[in-house]
Design brief:
Layout: H1 4-11, H2 20-27, H3 50-63, H4 67-96, H5 104-136
Helix pairs in contact: 1-2, 4-5
Length: about 160
């Protein structure tokens, strides 16, 4: 059973690609699981193919969250950090043993540093785009559940 407040908030969504769980979570955190006994389909087959299920998952993953963009940014920071540590290790190794071969290790460290920096910058740009998307998506900053008016305190008397 869905409350009128959640229903009204879901109806306000006018963008394409609605995702029901995302719309519900925009207006409430009071959700519980209900056990349902599923019966076999008596006629035909399900309309949800693997392709449709993946499309539904992708819609839910991207429509109401900027977490994938933040993941890309964190992955970029981690990759650049690993490249930096690897470059420092190679420098120390070369200082300790001047006969150590060079070329491959320095190339890999530069690739990791530059690739991580690119991912980090893409993640930051994605953060801005995600915030614009959330503003365009009309995500409510808050939902008013109830208005309480005290008639005894009118005018401070």
């Amino acid at each position: 059973m869905i409350k009128w407040l959640v229903n009204d908030e879901m109806i306000k969504y006018e963008q394409p690609y609605p995702y029901v769980i995302g719309l519900v979570l925009r207006s409430t955190n009071s959700i519980c699981n209900v056990t349902v006994n599923h019966r076999d389909c008596l006629q035909g087959v399900s309309g949800y193919t693997l392709k449709r299920l993946l499309a539904l998952w992708f819609n839910g993953f991207t429509a109401f969250s900027i977490k994938p963009l933040r993941f890309a940014e964190m992955f970029g920071i981690m990759t650049a950090s690993m490249g930096f540590v690897y470059a420092l290790w190679n420098i120390v190794k070369k200082l300790i043993s001047p006969t150590a071969p060079v070329g491959w290790a320095s190339t890999i460290s530069v690739i990791l540093i530059i690739g991580g920096a690119i991912l980090c910058v893409l993640g930051m740009m994605g953060e801005y785009i995600g915030r614009i998307y959330i503003c365009i998506n009309n995500s409510p900053q808050y939902v008013i559940r109830r208005i309480i008016r005290g008639d005894s305190d009118v005018g401070g008397e």
